[in-house]
Amino acid sequence: MKRLVKTALTIAGSDSGGGAGIEADLKTFTAFGVHGLVAITSVTAQNTQAVTAIHDIPPEVVAEQIRAVAEDIGVDAAKTGMLSNAEIIKAVAKTVKNYDFPLVVDPVMIAKSGAPLLREDAVDALIKYILPLATLVTPNRFEAEKLSGMKIRSVEDAKIVAKKIAEETGAEAVIVKGGHIEGEEAVDVLYHNGTFREYRAPKVEGCTHGTGCSFSAAITANLAKGLGLEEAIEVAKKFITLGIAMGHRIGHGHCPVNQSAWIEIPAEKWRIYEELTNAVREFESINPVRLIPEVGTNFVYSLPLPYARSTKDVAGVKGRIVKYGNSVKAVGPVEFGASDHLARAVLTYMRFYPEYRSAINIRYSREIIEEIIEIAQERGFKVSFYDRREEPEEIKAKEGATIPWGIETAIKRIKERPDIIYHLGDVGKEPMILVFGRNPREVLEKIKMLI
């Protein structure tokens, strides 16, 4: 029977902190739906701050790991990472020669913490035995300088070095990564088939431990899936840029790339879409006509942190929910970015209470707010408010700052988590009541209690 899942092999060291090495590679393979295979070359004791111990696996055991998985399962593409000594390098080169799969070589030399991961006497072995077998070599600036004996200060320098490494080693292609090169963009320079190609992305603040491993693993996974080299790199560039921006803020040193963001965000967006769509339909069926304000109601649900960065990461009802005769009707479908005001409110609320990601706005009137406060006291809900007349002038002068200021003010006013926040309006601004919950279901339950 034909194997339906593609496989990718990582020949690399183990990172006990889970940020780099085979751990990063396997997470990356999974993110692309590729089954990961492993040949461990070294076991390291490391965390986000330092590498405290290294134990190299015997070369014959490294070679046998490759042979075992290749003979039984099959390898669609492979990559190398940490190959710490010359004997391991020779054993890997001798073994992979027996198989016909693309090989991505990440010439790992130094850990993010600065610890050496490739012995000085092994650099020559890497150049002599491994690079000639490479479909692609993926050095960063410092690794490329070491391999070429040249300094890199610009994109043009990177082009010269990429070509030099390819021509002198016989590697099919070389990409010099641009994260360490000066400039606002991270420009990766590929030399392939006698031509250059640049891959550009803005340099983003975030977590960088495991960047090189994850980038090369993403290329490997996409080669395994049948993509051409240049297309595989293009996908990997997007993947690693997202992974850095969404990195896991753990440890006290260099925090690790978040490989899961690539699949978590689309999956979470679909869950949010389904849950909010169902909640909007139920809200319509409740038919709370008297709760709909003149400007209409919106119902929002945000991606979780750290994925929620702007209003585009919050789903809402396009066109809002309005009074339609004696009924209530959503004008349009649920879409991300469909809300502005309420989205900013929930994003601010999440800064204090990250698990509370949903909200709805309803009509303010003296009668309604008196009812809500009475019910809140009975049900144990907490109510707070903000007064736009108290808004500082510097906040008023800043576009989009009023709502974050208001929500923060209301939370700090009662020094605990409010279920309901209302504001008293201002010139040209309708007063409003906002109801918050962990999810749309919880918001709906509160609305049912309130009516």
UniProtKB/TrEMBL annotation:
Reactions listed under catalytic activity: 2-(2-carboxy-4-methylthiazol-5-yl)ethyl phosphate + 4-amino-2-methyl-5-(diphosphooxymethyl)pyrimidine + 2 H(+) = thiamine phosphate + CO2 + diphosphate; 4-amino-5-hydroxymethyl-2-methylpyrimidine + ATP = 4-amino-2-methyl-5-(phosphooxymethyl)pyrimidine + ADP + H(+); 2-[(2R,5Z)-2-carboxy-4-methylthiazol-5(2H)-ylidene]ethyl phosphate + 4-amino-2-methyl-5-(diphosphooxymethyl)pyrimidine + 2 H(+) = thiamine phosphate + CO2 + diphosphate; 4-amino-2-methyl-5-(phosphooxymethyl)pyrimidine + ATP = 4-amino-2-methyl-5-(diphosphooxymethyl)pyrimidine + ADP
Biological pathway: Cofactor biosynthesis; thiamine diphosphate biosynthesis; thiamine phosphate from 4-amino-2-methyl-5-diphosphomethylpyrimidine and 4-methyl-5-(2-phosphoethyl)-thiazole: step 1/1; Cofactor biosynthesis; thiamine diphosphate biosynthesis; 4-amino-2-methyl-5-diphosphomethylpyrimidine from 5-amino-1-(5-phospho-D-ribosyl)imidazole
Main EC class the enzyme belongs to: transferase
Top-level taxon in the UniProt lineage: Archaea
A biological process term (GO) from this entry: thiamine biosynthetic process
GO MF assignments: ATP binding; hydroxymethylpyrimidine kinase activity; phosphomethylpyrimidine kinase activity; thiamine-phosphate diphosphorylase activity
EC number: 2.5.1.3, 2.7.1.49, 2.7.4.7
Start and end residues of each Thiamine-phosphate synthase ThiN domain: 275-448
Residue ranges of every copy of the Pyridoxamine kinase/Phosphomethylpyrimidine kinase domain listed in the record: 15-258
Entry keyword set: ATP-binding, Kinase, Multifunctional enzyme, Nucleotide-binding, Thiamine biosynthesis, Transferase
Pfam families reported for this sequence: Phos_pyr_kin, ThiN
Signal peptide: none
A GO CC term assigned to this protein in UniProt: cytosol
Role, per record: Condenses 4-methyl-5-(beta-hydroxyethyl)thiazole monophosphate (THZ-P) and 4-amino-5-hydroxymethyl pyrimidine pyrophosphate (HMP-PP) to form thiamine monophosphate (TMP). Catalyzes the phosphorylation of hydroxymethylpyrimidine phosphate (HMP-P) to HMP-PP, and of HMP to HMP-P.
Record family assignment: In the N-terminal section; belongs to the ThiD family. In the C-terminal section; belongs to the ThiN family.
Annotated protein name in UniProt: Bifunctional thiamine biosynthesis protein ThiDN
Origin species: Pyrococcus furiosus (strain ATCC 43587 / DSM 3638 / JCM 8422 / Vc1)
